[in-house]
Amino acid sequence: MNVGGQHFRTIWLKPGDPRVVQLIDQRFLPHRFVVEDVTTVEQMAIAIRDMHVRGAGLIGAAAGYGMYLATLEGADLMQAAAQLKATRPTAVNLAWAVDRQLRAIIAADCVKDRIATASATATQIADEDAEYCHLIGRHGLELIHRIAREKQGKQVNVLTHCNAGWLAFVDYGSATSPIYAAHDAGMPIHVWVDETRPRNQGSKLTAWELGEHGVSHTVVADNTGGHLMQRGDVDLVIVGTDRTTYTGDVANKIGTYLKALAANDTGVPFYVALPSSSFDWSMRDGLAEIPIEERGSEEVKHADGWSKGRQVEVRVTPEASAAANYGFDVTPRRLVTGLITERGICAANEDSILALFPEHAPVAPAATATLLSPPGGCGSEAGDKSVASPE
Ligand code: MRU
Predict the structure, then answer these.
(1) CB distance 54 to ligand 1 below 6 Å
(2) Atom 9 in ligand 1: which residue has the minimum CA distance?
(3) What is the model's pTM?
(4) 2-127: which CATH architecture?
(5) What is the per-residue pLDDT across 208-222, written as a single tens digit (0 to 9) for each?
């Protein structure tokens, strides 16, 4: 998407040097646009854990590239997979991408093929993420069109929470993709952007990317949504998700549940946009089963911003107060009007989801792929130290 009128993705292989993965370091947005070079799986694990990159789709793509770097380095692939998976617990795209890489890499015959396969698979994961988000935009656009027709061409107001924009994916975003599509089609659209304490992904990231694309938006404090909905100032809520069960329960950034309750009470449609990589095909009960990340209390006790030409951090609570920092909550399916996926829009229930994705029957949690034997068949490379040892 647009940064200063130039097209960017969030992650890519460095042109001319495919041993380097480049990514937008989101810790500095919206104040500074910083591109980070990542050359080891260790660095990629840190980039995910410390949220240089974040958002379900992008975490998955970064993990895919992380496995590629591990293959290049000759690291133990099972160890690399475990290291990447341990970085953040809630977004299911992470384990999905790592397992997809493992399955692909172990099918390759020799070290050279493994590297080529890991590179191709990382690129496929990233390209697919962008393509699926693009398709989500097309399907979501129909929804916005319908509302615009009902409003006889008056501005459509969408509320979104956190950042499920292109910064949370490789391109387009999930919740924002229909918004960009509507804006690009010339429809009058305005977005209420929840600031999303404690890390402020809404006021920092969503506001920045909407602004770069020229989309009209207003940042509001997190608690404002219910009031806006009661006044009739929200036509539609669209949020993203970090993990949605195959039965339709939705884990998303903390505070999403409260927006869904308010939307339900006021009759505002509440949609969740997601690529299929964010479905957990093994989980039935989101409230009971989805792991909720708890982050450090300092994120709640402090806020950061831009002052006098530099990024500064200040404490906003009494020093001695305890603080709790739950990263996500689960919105039960009964509060979700529909799911916008790359294959179309469906109701948030098992039958409708599996009707769109019939290849996914409920299964037990996917076992981590195991390297059964070292690769051979490419002559001298067999037995090279880059071959992960089977556990
Ligand atoms: O903690 P983050 O920033 O990685 O959280 C992810 C999110 O930005 C949101 O929960 C988002 O709505 C879903 S990710 C597409």
Answers:
(1) yes
(2) 253
(3) 0.92
(4) Up-down Bundle (1.20)
(5) 999 999 999 999 999
